[in-house]
Design goal:
Length: 240
């Protein structure tokens, strides 16, 4: 692909790194969901229950820290928010004339329509993109992920005083829905800017993995249930 400027090429390279960071978050969620599915309609009452709780808590910590890392606005770090700041500061480079050059390798029959359709996501006049628009997207992204950022800053990355441990006492389904919402908004916003910088989009952020990986959890749960059944049977025999 031919990039219109070296600066644009640098932005596109940064977006690749951010893309794979988001893919890793979706991969973690995919594995967690497989674990959750293995527990559906099953009750674990032996000491192995603590292992399943440990998996749930570590998923929560890992995914929230990952979202925080992608939205980090600290100086000098690679993050989606910092990339958006760079784009806003140099929005004059993001002209349609420059963007159109990304599509040079596409068939002529598709090039014009595809380029204009992609650019219309950001521009009202089809010529330029305003820094205000980019900053608005960045602010909206952080706002949509505000609960996640507050949680990770107060409960994971740092220790806040006198704050209830909502993971242990609150509604877990609400909290996990919150993570899903943050991931969805993050991936959708990123995909728009990935299109702007590379003339490409991610079809699905969930990676393709080896078939049958979920059997690891099924074996774990089945073994625990077998042990429970054996213990129950032994207990019954002793009381005869």
């Amino acid at each position: 692909m031919t990039f219109p400027t070296d600066e644009w090429k640098s932005w596109a390279a940064e977006s690749e790194g951010i893309k794979w960071a988001i893919v890793r978050l979706f991969h973690k969620r995919m594995i967690w969901r497989a674990h959750n599915e293995s527990l559906r309609s099953r009750e674990i009452n032996d000491p192995t229950a603590m292992v399943h709780q440990w998996i749930r808590e570590n998923y929560a910590d890992s995914i929230t820290v990952g979202i925080r890392r992608i939205l980090d606005e600290s100086s000098g770090v690679l993050s989606f928010c910092n990339l958006l700041k760079k784009l806003a500061q140099r929005s004059e480079v993001l002209s349609f004339e420059n963007y159109y050059r990304l599509w040079d390798d596409f068939p002529a029959s598709l090039r014009d329509w595809s380029a204009r359709e992609g650019y219309s996501k950001f521009s009202t006049d089809g010529v330029r993109i305003s820094a205000r628009r980019i900053n608005r997207d960045r602010e909206a992204l952080r706002r949509e992920c505000d609960e996640v950022l507050a949680f990770v800053n107060e409960r994971v990355a740092h220790m806040a005083r006198r704050r209830a441990d909502q993971w242990d006492t609150g509604d877990l389904s609400l909290r996990y829905s919150m993570l899903d919402h943050a991931l969805q908004h993050l991936s959708e916003t990123f995909n728009d800017y990935y299109l702007l910088l590379t003339a490409n989009q991610v079809g699905d952020f969930e990676p393709i993995v080896a078939y049958g990986y979920e059997r690891a959890f099924q074996r774990m749960v089945n073994s625990a249930l077998d042990a429970q059944t054996t213990d129950s049977a032994d207990g019954a025999s002793r009381h005869r």
